[in-house]
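Memo to structure team: turn this sequence into structure tokens by end of day. - J.P.
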Amino acid sequence: MGKYAMALILTAALLMGICAGAVGQEMVSITQLYEQVQEMDGRWQKSYETPNGTMEVDVPVIVPDIEEIPVVTVERAIPLSDELFETVLQGRPTPATKKGAVEYEIDVNEKALEFFLGYVEYGQDKHEALDSVWIQRGGYRFSVGFGSMGEASPVTVHYPWEIEMDQPYLRGSEQTIDDVMRIWEEDIRLSYPDGEYVVKPKHVKICGSTLTENTGTDEASKRDGYYEIWAEQYICGLPLFGAVSSLDADNYYAMNHESSDEANRATEKLYPYRIGAERTTNYLLSFSSNEEDNRTMTALDNVRTIEMADVPLASLQSVQAAIEKEVEAGHIRQVYSMRLGYLLYSNPGMDDCAWAVPRWVVECDYITKDNEKEVEDFHEFDPELELWDRWGFLQMPVDAQNAELIIFTVGDEQTFSVPEILTWDDVK
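Reply from structure team:
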């Protein structure tokens, strides 16, 4: 049985509708959920007997300390003021600039900054069409050679809670992750001057890391190090995890599938459900070697409407119980983190906006007969370095209201549609 067929079977079994699963169970507020997490000291620690032997779970459970959890719609924020946009267009073309591209260098506060401007529809030259901004300085400018900083090893990867943000971890630099984020905040204020935006690290890759003695003898092992930081935007106090989509990538939640005529037809059918969610998915990446050599890639959203000011949530015990069933059945073999945030959904006609819906995301090894060999190969290759590249079975969403695991497919309209949301009136 192929991945596509397996995904459809799993979806039919697991997605039975939000109301049926949620009304009969305990519902709590976001403040009560936060208190439940604090009662367990913010960590899920437990041993389980599974068909594969004893499994130890010891991971952070991350819920923000906020008073309400709204359901909102979001739209892409338009970067740059009109004045700065026109200034960029009058800047010095970079060696990478081609006809129709917007890659220019200008002086800002007596420093040369290069701007690469992205578009929703590539080739448009209107300010309103801007989608993202890359700001490149120092060795990361096109004018000195794109990628001139070179690779550096050894490489270590980390969740933000595993390392100290105010400590240096680079060979040849005293720069900290906090330092990188301060530069990024400056770029965000420059790129998005009309709003208040919160961006926090999601994954930290340290190239030329001082956290391991495995230095090597090649040129990459002698070169000064740099950070590669993937980040998330926070709205209403919660992280935007990404989009419900049939694409396979870090910020898209979908089941990997092998290409076939059937799968391709299903993907094409779902395209209208993807547009708004994909266009509002954040792309946030920073490279930094020191205070002078940096590149930030930023695409941010604004809240468009508040659809519901506050919604009820399933208790932490209900969510854990759903995950535990998959652990005890032997399907979940390892758990790395458990966080609450928003997933983006859109329907046909929602070309420029999406619903931000509360969801848990559990990063784990989810095993089926189809992906078991793939999981084993990743662990054998480098279980730490490539941890979050295993998109098809690592990011497992859980419905925050009915506490059911969500396994995405390439061909199920119910899975990709904006879901029904329970209100407090529904559960009284």
